[in-house]
Structures are given as C-alpha cells and as structure tokens.
C-alpha cells in the first residue's frame, strides 16, 4: 500500500484544502493519473497517482491538510480490472442510458461542451442529463462540494423551469460553506493592507479618443501580424512602465527600515478567477513589446480562468493594475497589493461632454485612480505619476520614446 501525501508547494505554504476528488473510492487508477485537486492560499494544483492500483480515500472534500499529510492510499498489488482499460469510460455509458435514441457521434461531444459554458464542475451523470435536455450549467444550482452540480440538482432544475437552481418562491433558506484557502488569504491581505499602510488615493481622468482610434485602425492588422488582439491593457502597461521609471518611489516598497527600489517593472494584473481574485505577474514588462504584453496578458488570464496559475506566476510584482471597468465600475479606490506601494485602477469608458478648446465635445472618458502608501510616496510623486500616465495615454506616440518624437530627434 502506497501513501499519497500532500507535496511541498511553496516555502511559505504550510497547509492546503482538498477542493474535490476526481476519482472515487475503489477506482483503479493508472500511474500519473490525476486523483484530486488541492487548493493552497495562492493556487490550485493537481495530485497525481505515483503508482497504478486500487484507490482508497482517506481525506474528504473540504478537509484542511498539512504538508506531508496522507491524502489517500493506492494498493499497487491489486489486479487491474478488465473494465479499467479506459478510466473515463463510465461517463459515455451513462450517457447512452440517459439518451438511448441518439447516436454515439452526436451525444459524446455535448457533455464536453457543457462545462465550457461555466466554470462550475458537474458529475458525469449530471453532464449527460444537461447535454440531453440542453440545460446550461448556469441554470443549475450545485449542491455538491464547492458548488459541484449533482444529478439531483439537474432534475430539480428541470422540474422547476424558469427558476434558477429550482429555488422555491419566497424561499428564506441559508447556506453556509467553509471559506477556501484562497478567499481566506485574500481577506487577510486586504485587511493587512488597510491596517499596515498609510493608504491614500488620487484621481484623474483620461480621454481615450486616440487609443480607441488606434485600436479601430490597426486591430485587424495587429491580429494578423501577431496572432493576438490589440486591447487596452498593453497601452496602460506601457504607460505605467514609463511613468514608473520616471517616478521610482511608486515602483518601490518598504522592507523593515529600508526602501527597496526596482530598476525593472514586474506588473501584476488583477484577474477575477472562478475561486477568487488572483494577481499574476508580467515580468520585465518595460522590455516587452505591445504584442508580447497582450500575449502574456491573454496567457495569464486563460490560466486564471482554468485555475492553472503556478505560485511562481503569482509571486512578486512591483506595481499592480486592476480593471474594474470590465464589471461596469465608474470609479473606485483600489486597495494596495502589499508589499507593493501603489496600484492603478482602470474604470469604465463612458462618453461625457468635455470642454475642448472652448467648445463642448462628447469624448470617451475613463476615470483613473492610484492608491498609494504615503509612507514612501509623497503626494507630488503620486499625482505626477498619474498625470504622466494620463499624458502618455492621450498621446500614444509618446509611448515609443517616452517623449515627443520630434524632441527625441532634436535631443531636447
């Protein structure tokens, strides 16, 4: 009997939570097959079988486990059952029972397509029923661990069409669930940031006309040339990198009684993932091209949605950019991502009447907010940093040299 233990996942991580089992008690598993998902305070990772054999579960879903604790055992001496040749073959069999009238080529792709519409996971039986009855996962309220959709949940939704999750009218039910390691960590860090920093926020607004014109003119050519979309994040990242190098205190942090300045810009991008807020890092963003930044943002966002970010990809960072505008936020005060000293908040682009050269014109405007630690960043530096970012965004040609091209040519 082989013990499968919680592996070491990082120097600062002492415990993890068992998010969900992907195999059942008594299943025959092959070597390197994924057994379950474990969740640390920073990321979700998979636990694989070290040997082939019969699986015996020890820990339960939702359990908090210390590093080195036994999660399960594998009996490697057990004979391989004849039915264990294809471990995932149970789902298609159950699908055939649920929909005997449909051909195999039509029913098999549908269960695979159902989870893609939602980040919520479902049991194979529930997937088969949802595929047959054309029920979206978002229309079903999961009662399993971490919101996992069970067979009964789908049947309940089918018996109460029009009500999300089959909730009864005027229901006053309550639900309690244990906070995940990630949510606990986010909560602790947010409170720590509020209590341990002298945080202030300064605001400004930026006219997005030029950037929107550039995107409209070049988005198709950019996509053909680089294979990625031309979004707003590359413009903001470039602008921040230039401004950070001009105002190094905004790119620094306090370590004890010392100030640590960085001659590089590791930009953290706040991303809303299925299990909570994560902040992956773009390393040396000041040295990347627009296309490289867009590609990296897309890669990290995809990993965040799929809960596949590694601890290394979320560690470090010298400055953070968060975009509440994707959710419709018009203005907010972002909280510093400690130990960093500042964070830029992007917001919704909204057309507003503006006075331009003595005339009123309707322009696409965005409010910007920079929250900063006043212990290291003075008001002059924070305001000047934000004004510089505004200038660079309203005049995107400045992003090439960091200054007016003609002045660069004349070395002025």
What topology does this entry show?
Elements: E1 2-5, E2 15-21, E3 28-29, E4 34-39, E5 44-48, E6 53-57, E7 64-66, E8 70-75, H1 90-98, H2 104-107, H3 109-113, H4 124-133, H5 151-159, H6 181-196, E9 199-207, H7 209-226, H8 232-246, E10 253-255, E11 258-260, E12 267-269, E13 271-273, E14 276-278, E15 281-282, H9 290-305, E16 319-323, E17 342-346, E18 349-356, E19 359-373, H10 379-394, H11 398-401, H12 405-409
Parallel strand pairs: 12-16, 16-17
Antiparallel strand pairs: 1-8, 2-4, 2-7, 3-6, 4-5, 6-8, 9-19, 10-11, 12-15, 13-14, 17-19, 18-19
Helix pairs in contact: 1-4, 4-5, 8-9, 8-10
Tell me about this structure.
Helices cover 31% and strands 24% of the residues. The chain is globular. Strand 4 and strand 5 form a beta hairpin. The longest helix is centred in the middle third of the chain and has 18 residues. The chain has 412 residues and is α+β, with helices and mostly antiparallel strands. Helix 4 packs parallel to helix 5, helix 8 crosses helix 9 and helix 8 packs across helix 10. It folds into three domains: 81 residues, RNA polymerase II/Efflux pump adaptor protein, barrel-sandwich hybrid domain (OB fold (Dihydrolipoamide Acetyltransferase, E2P), Beta Barrel); 81 residues, no CATH class; 212 residues, 2-Layer Sandwich (Chloramphenicol Acetyltransferase). The strands form five sheets. Strands 9, 12, 15, 16, 17, 18 and 19 form a seven-stranded mixed sheet that branches.
């Amino acid at each position: 009997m082989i013990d499968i233990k919680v592996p070491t996942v990082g120097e600062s991580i002492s415990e993890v939570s068992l998010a969900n089992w992907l195999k059942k008690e008594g299943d025959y598993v092959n070597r390197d097959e994924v057994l379950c998902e474990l969740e640390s305070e920073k990321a979700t990772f998979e636990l694989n079988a070290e040997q082939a054999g019969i699986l015996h579960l020890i820990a339960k879903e939702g359990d908090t486990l210390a590093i080195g604790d036994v999660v399960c055992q594998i009996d490697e001496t057990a004979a391989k059952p004849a039915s264990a040749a294809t471990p995932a073959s149970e789902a298609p069999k159950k699908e055939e029972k649920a929909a005997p009238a449909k051909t195999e080529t039509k029913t098999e792709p549908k269960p695979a397509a159902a989870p893609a519409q939602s980040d919520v996971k479902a049991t194979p039986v529930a997937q088969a029923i949802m595929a047959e009855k054309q029920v979206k996962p978002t229309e079903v309220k999961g009662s399993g661990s971490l919101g996992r959709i069970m067979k009964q949940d789908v049947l309940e939704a089918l018996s109460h069409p029009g009500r999300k999750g089959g909730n009864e009218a005027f229901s006053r039910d309550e639900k309690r669930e244990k906070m995940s390691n990630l949510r606990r960590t986010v909560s602790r860090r947010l409170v720590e940031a509020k209590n341990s920093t002298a945080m202030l926020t300064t605001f400004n607004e930026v006219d997005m006309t030029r950037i929107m014109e550039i995107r409209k003119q070049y988005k198709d050519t950019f996509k053909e040339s680089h294979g990625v979309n031309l979004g707003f994040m590359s413009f903001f990242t470039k602008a921040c990198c230039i401004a950070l190098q001009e105002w190094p205190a905004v790119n620094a942090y306090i370590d004890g009684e010392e100030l640590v300045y960085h001659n590089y810009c590791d930009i953290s991008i706040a991303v809303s993932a299925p299990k909570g807020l994560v902040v992956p890092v773009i390393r040396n963003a000041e040295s990347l091209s627009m296309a490289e930044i867009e590609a990296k943002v897309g890669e990290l966002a995809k990993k965040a949605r799929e809960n596949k970010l590694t601890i290394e990809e979320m560690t470090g960072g010298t400055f953070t950019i968060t975009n509440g505008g994707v959710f419709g936020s018009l203005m907010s005060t972002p909280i510093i991502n400690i130990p960093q000293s500042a964070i830029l908040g992007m917001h919704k682009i909204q057309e507003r009447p503006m006075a331009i050269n003595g005339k009123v014109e309707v322009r696409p405007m965005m409010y910007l907010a920079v929250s900063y630690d006043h212990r290291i960043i003075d008001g002059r530096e924070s305001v000047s940093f934000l004004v510089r970012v505004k200038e660079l965004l309203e005049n995107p040609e400045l992003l090439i040299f960091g200054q007016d091209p003609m002045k660069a040519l004349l070395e002025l």
